[in-house]
Amino acid sequence: MCWKSPGLGSSSGTVLSPISESSLRGIAIASTCTRAANTSVNTATSRATAQPNCKDRFRHDLCRDLQALDAHNVPPAPVHLSNSTDPLQPLEQEHHHTLFVLEKLVEHRHRFSSVTLLTKNPAVLMDDRYVQVLHRLGELPADHPRRSWFDAQRHPPLRLECSLAFHNDEHRRLLEPAAPSVESRMKALRLLRKEGFSVFLRIDPLFPRDPLGGGKTMADFDLPDVQSIHELAPPIFWCYYNQKGQS
């Protein structure tokens, strides 16, 4: 439940054409982009003193992989930032790797269909630099291969998702102490919604809640019922009233 994920998980991507292994590796990286603001820890350093740091040559490798997509004329596919590591961790404010990724996705927009950004820290996106590039990502060029499909389905080509497991900030401090506060996330979502973006709130991760099996309750384990219907009602109603009329 720690917000900062120091490891680098294995990437996966949809194979869309029979091309070389090196290019497939590029597709996997570019098609998940979950490594945008990823961090690494020197394995020789103890857990107590290890500090997060950005991947070496990240920008160079990303550009190489995007060029491979063009070289093999790969059809557009969805891209997700990022379901394994938050792309807007504190390191982003120093290195702006995710901003760089978003800008490159704009340049190669015809290689990607939907773009999804998932984070616990949407306040970073309130910066005008991110707002501008997100608007560009949300507008498919007229000659985009999937433009007619998105228009017909009224499906947003850009999704901004925020995971918010609790509405009670006391519970957030207990279980996600390093993550941004509930209020900062909700404030950012309101402002992003006013900008016209398709904003989605995810109750994630899910925790056990009352009633438990065997007649037990969370209190029997000296734990609060952090995701009761009562606790989650405010964000659920916010989603309902703010997403009405959207696909």
Description of the structure:
This protein is of the alpha/beta class and 247 residues long. It has a domain at 76-243. The chain contains nine helices and six strands; from the N terminus they run H-E-E-H-E-H-H-E-H-H-E-H-H-E-H. It has helices at residues 21-32, 58-71, 92-95, 97-107, 128-137, 147-153, 169-175, 182-194, 229-243, and strands at 39-40, 53-54, 77-81, 112-119, 158-163, 199-202. The strands form two sheets. Strands 3-4-5-6 form a four-stranded parallel sheet. Strands 1-2 form a two-stranded antiparallel sheet. Helix 1 crosses helix 2 (58-71), helix 2 (58-71) packs parallel to helix 4 (97-107) and helix 4 (97-107) runs parallel beside helix 5. The longest helix is centred in the C-terminal third of the chain and has 15 residues, at 229-243. The radius of gyration is 20 Å and the shape is globular.
Spatial strand sequence of the major β-sheet? 3-4-5-6
Report the major sheet: 4 strands, parallel
User: What gross morphology would you assign?
Assistant: globular
Count the E strands. Answer: 6
The portion of residues assigned to helices is 25-40%
Q: Topology of this protein?
A:
Elements: H1 21-32, E1 39-40, E2 53-54, H2 58-71, E3 77-81, H3 92-95, H4 97-107, E4 112-119, H5 128-137, H6 147-153, E5 158-163, H7 169-175, H8 182-194, E6 199-202, H9 229-243
Parallel strand pairs: 3-4, 4-5, 5-6
Antiparallel strand pairs: 1-2
Helix pairs in contact: 1-2, 2-4, 4-5
